[in-house]
Structures are given as structure tokens and as C-alpha cells.
Amino acid sequence: MGLVAQLYSISIRSYPAVLRLVAPFHAKARRWLTGQQGLLDTIAHTLNHAVDTRPIVWFHAASLGEFEQGRPVMEAFRDAYPHYRILLTFFSPSGYEVRKDYAGADYVFYLPIDTPDNARRFVQLVKPRLVFFIKYEFWANYLHELHRANIPVLSFSAIFRPNQLFFKPYGGFYRQLLRQFNHLLVQNQESVDLLKSVDITNVTLAGDTRFDRVAQTVATVRTIPVAEAFKNGQPLLVVGSAWPLDMDVLVPFLNQFAQPLKVIVAPHEIDADTIADWQKRLIHSSVRYSDVDPTDLSVLADKRVLFIDNVGMLSSLYQYGEFAFIGGAFREGLHNILEAATFGMPIFFGPIYDKFQEAVDLVAEGGAFPVRTVDELQLAFARQYADRSKAAQITRLYVQRNIGATARVMDVATKILSDRHDAEQ
Questions:
Q1: Alpha helix ranges (H) inside 262-317
Q2: Which DSSP helix (H) or strand (E) runs through 211?
Q3: pLDDT tens column, 255-284
Q4: Which helix (H) or strand (E) holds 66?
Q5: In CATH, what class is 3-207+404-424?
Q6: Rounded distance, CA 132 to CA 359, Å?
Q7: Which CATH number fits domain 216-401: 3.10.20.880, 3.40.50.2000, 2.40.50.140, 3.30.450.20?
Q8: Which of 66, 68, 137, 145 is catalytic?
Q9: 3-deoxy-D-manno-octulosonic-acid transferase N-terminal domain location, by residue (predicted)?
Q10: Does residue 66 carry a catalytic annotation?
């Protein structure tokens, strides 16, 4: 075993120990550790006692964002191949806890940690006919076991950058992981070129399945009477997935903005104390969604800011907006901007967005606007407030012309299943 492989194994085995140290102070770490307890035995019991004996395909998503990215493919696969069961795994509690009851999968589990023994037992238990890894998933032992068992593996909505280890002179271990995939479906031409530079050619430029997902969202958007009454025909800014660092810029901006503007804030994490602090810092009147009586919406008339203290509503809230600010790009990682873009509006976010292709594209085209300070937000927002029509058209058309990745993923999956069926006859 090479040095890098040894370091990989050490880091994988050390991960639970590290989380046990922080678990007393970190709820997410506690949930992950609890989820891993007896996990393989639970999977074995569930599958061994299943009455349904249809073959299984396995989808793996790191977290909730990757799940939403993969959901159109899962649903398309279900429609095309109803004679298969779908098994879905998550690495992160933020994905598993929200989607553990997802009706589009027959089974939903945490992913057992990637040790050789776990990977071997998991593959033997599940016996997947086909595996889909969504975006950034490169688990060495799972890939090795799947390759050894001659089980085809696809990666879709993947994106690669020159600074990744795959493309470094010392990145041989990581390049070998890429060679375990039967096919890589990537988001952009740069990824195709980078993979070709290291002699990986089983690649398709398929695009990003998130565009298909947001198109589905628009088709199934639901009416939210509280939001409609709150807007009351006025210009509306929807703040999606706000973190404290985002609000450190937004609060002083809102306190100084003098034009008519309603604001809906959907925090990334629902924490009553944090929301209360934001309310205190705002000079404008505000209300929490949970405090609104749906039978008496008159309380909303004089409110400037509405805080959403629940989950699952954000994608439908964008339909009421003329502008969007998407959180996470000051440190944590930019959240989904496509849900806002599909409704056609200028989009604002923090300065750290270069790893998100859609953000890079929309900034270049003039539909999105990164800001670092309150002053920069004031300037950028004032310009769009005066005339948002151009940016709104740019964002809407950007989504429309990028729809179709799911069909390209399914074309590759269908060919692999067909070839495998022919080889077994």
C-alpha cells in the first residue's frame, strides 16, 4: 500500500474518533455517530427480510444539496425501470435526517464509513446492479469493491478544477479512483479537458441535473398565502439560506435602504435566539412566520421583514420575489442560486463563489452580483432596483437553456444496463 493510500485509511479510521471528541458540543456530530451505530447490521436485517426481491440500484449523495441534484435522475430511473428497487445513502445527517422518509427510494440509510471491511460487506449485502455517485463522491474502498465485483459505477453532475489532487503530479492515488468509474458525466468543458489531460476519456459533457430539478420546482410551486399577503404588491427581496455573516451585511443595508422594499429571510439554520438577535438589530418592524395567524393576516400590513422559521418553504417563496440574496458565500459555501434564477430576478451573494459554475456564469453574464461589503451591496442593489429587467431575463434564460442533463445521464445508464443484460444472456 502506498503512502497516500495509508494516509487515506488512517484518516478514514480516525474520523469517528475525532467526532466523538467534538460530539458533546456538536449536535451534527452526535447524529452522525448515532446513525453509524449498528448500521451494517440494520442494513443486513432490512434487506435479508425484504419480501421485495427486485434487483437494487444504489444512489449515494453526500448531503441534502447533492440529493436535490440527484433527485431528477432517481425519479427518471424509477419511471423507466420500475422493476428495480432504489437504495439511497447519505454521508451527512443534514441529508439523511431531512430525507430519510423520501418516498422515491425503497431504502434510505447512512453510508457506512469507508473502511475495507465495511465496503466489502455493504456491497455483498446490497448487490447493486448499478451505482450512481452524485457530484463529489470518491470513496476509495467502495470504488475498489464495486470494481472488483464488476458492478458499474457512474458519477454525474461532477465538476473538476485544476487545483484538485487528481491533477497534481503526486495525485496518482486519486487518479486511480477516477479510473474505477465506468463513466463520468460532468458539468462543463473544463472538466472534460482536465480528465482528458490525465488520460481519462470515459466522459460525457452532460451538464448539471440541478437545472432539471429547479424546472420541476417551478412546475410544482405552491401558493403561500402569508407570503402573498406580506408582499402586498410591493417589491420583495427574498434572502435564501442566510448565515450570520450574510446578515452582518444585510442588516445594515436594510436599515439604510429608504425605498419601498419588503424582505423575506429564510435562515439556513432555524435558531430562535439567532433570529431574535437579527430582529433586534433591524430598525424596521419584523415578524416570524410561526407568529402569524393564517386566519388574520392584517398583522403583516406594517411589517417590513418576515422571518421564515420552518423548513421546506424556500423554493416556493422565490415566486414572490423581484430580487434574491443567497447565503453562504462569505464562508460556508454558496447555497442554491438556481431556484431563484428560474423565476427570473437579479441575484446577490457574498464574494466566495468561484467553485459554483452557475454563479460564475451568471456573474459573467450580468445576472448575478457578488458583494463583499455593505457599501458594495447598496451600490449593486440600487442599480438593479432602478431597472432589474435585463438581469431578470438573463437568469431566467440561463436556467432554461441548461435543462436536459437528466436525460443525458439516463442515456448512459440505459446503455450500461443494456450492455450488461446482453453480456449475461
A1: 272-281, 314-317
A2: helix 210-219
A3: 999 999 999 999 998 999 999 999 999 999
A4: helix 64-80
A5: alpha beta
A6: 25
A7: 3.40.50.2000
A8: 66
A9: 52-212
A10: yes
